[in-house]
Amino acid sequence: MKKEPKIESATVRAEYAQHVVPSYKRSATAPVLVRGKGSRVWDADGKEYLDFGSGIAVNCLGHAHPRLAEVMRRQGEELVHVSNIFFHPKQAELATALVQRTGPGKMFFCNSGAEANEGMVKAARKAGSGEGRYEVITALNSFHGRTLGMIAASGQERLREGFGPVMPGFVYVPFNDLAAVEKAIGPKTAAVMVEGIQGEGGVIPATADYLLGLRKLTKEKGVSLLMDSVQCGHYRTGRFQSYELILEKAGKREKFLPDAVSMAKSLGAGFPIGAVWFGEKLKDVLGPGSHATTYGGTALACAVALEILKIIEEEKLAENIAARGEELKRGLAQLTGKGWVGEVRGYGGMVGVTVRGRTHAEVAEALAQQGLLVVPAGSDVLRFLAPYNVSMAEIEEAVRKVEATL
Ligand SMILES: Cc1ncc(COP(=O)(O)O)c(C=O)c1O
């Protein structure tokens, strides 16, 4: 076999500096990653890392899963893309599978999380347009994406700096504060949009009472309830949707079904796909010609997403990540108060640790030196976003690597 020439990290970094827009916070020593397998990745110099960043909550099956590689090859040879003015069976099958797991309704397919949220907000505005309702209430500290619409929607001022004029129609209120939402709802309100667990904001779960209160309030006021499940959904917490887990943990038996749920990240496990589930209220609002995207729900993307669902179910990976997440939390909690380790929170493959005495970026770099990749969030949190097929031994290894940085 022909030997591939060695990739020089310095050359790759220099090419980035010259030809890639510097919009991402990348440290000068960030690894040049060239290969992955399961929970591990390797850089160009052969250094091995345990990848608990998972491409920011994306690679739910780890790296180079053989069944995903195979489905991509098979579908690639059969049919990759046709226009959405035609039908194809994979989109039908995926829509059915996602509706079965979420609730009665319909799916819209797109390519990313921001795009899914755009679709959700468009539908809510269209539904409210007859009554002059267009405003969407979102939470402070929330993150909904980087399009012009979603930087306006996100409850973080820094995302908007320099990009004005900002799209009007968004109102921000403190997270987990039902009274603040009630006060903000007015005759122009079309929707309330929240994350089940704020991800970029620092792994902050909604409370069960907040979610149930939002559902009751929005129903009473004729306002849509939109859940941004891009990061916390698709089994990341061990349940299909984080709101199911939050309600279950709180012992709440009430039925909770929002009017729309956005999906991306783990839905494609690294293959770009986004989607929105619309419930009874919104499922037919986006009529012919009202919303579209060329690549939405290609045969290839849908085949990959279907295979991911099959793997998660056949291999009981939701149960696995729920159990491994508890082990990780237990291991990290034993280090609380030592060195930089503060509070440990979250569920399954979405665990956050607050950082004390140092910046989260500094600690992330120290962990990378130990061979553990994690992702900073908020002002002082590190996210541990393990793949769903992570093993107990890998969890223990991650905790040992954390201990080594104290
Ligand atoms: C909760 C949430 N919504 C939306 C997005 C945006 O998704 P994308 O980067 O795929 O556009 C993200 C990305 O981190 C997210 O965490």
Q: What is the H level of CATH, i.e. the homologous superfamily of the largest domain?
A: Type I PLP-dependent aspartate aminotransferase-like (Major domain)
According to DSSP, the number of beta strands is 17
Per CATH, the architecture of the largest domain is 3-Layer(aba) Sandwich
Share of helix, binned: 25-40%
Brief overview, please?
With 406 residues, the chain is α/β, with parallel strands linked by helices. It has helices at 9-19, 54-57, 66-78, 89-102, 113-128, 148-153, 178-184, 208-221, 242-249, 299-314, 317-333, 360-370, 392-404; strands at 33-37, 40-43, 48-51, 106-110, 135-139, 170-173, 189-195, 197-198, 204-205, 224-228, 260-263, 274-278, 341-347, 350-355, 372-373, 375-377, 381-384. Bound molecules: pyridoxal-5'-phosphate (PLP).
Compile the SSE list and pairings.
Elements lengths: L8 H11 L13 E5 L2 E4 L4 E4 L2 H4 L8 H13 L10 H14 L3 E5 L2 H16 L6 E5 L8 H6 L16 E4 L4 H7 L4 E7 L1 E2 L5 E2 L2 H14 L2 E5 L13 H8 L10 E4 L10 E5 L20 H16 L2 H17 L7 E7 L2 E6 L4 H11 L1 E2 L1 E3 L3 E4 L7 H13 L2
Parallel strand pairs: 3-15, 5-6, 5-7, 7-10, 10-11
Antiparallel strand pairs: 1-2, 2-3, 4-12, 8-9, 11-12, 13-14, 14-17, 16-17
Helix pairs in contact: 3-10, 4-10, 11-13
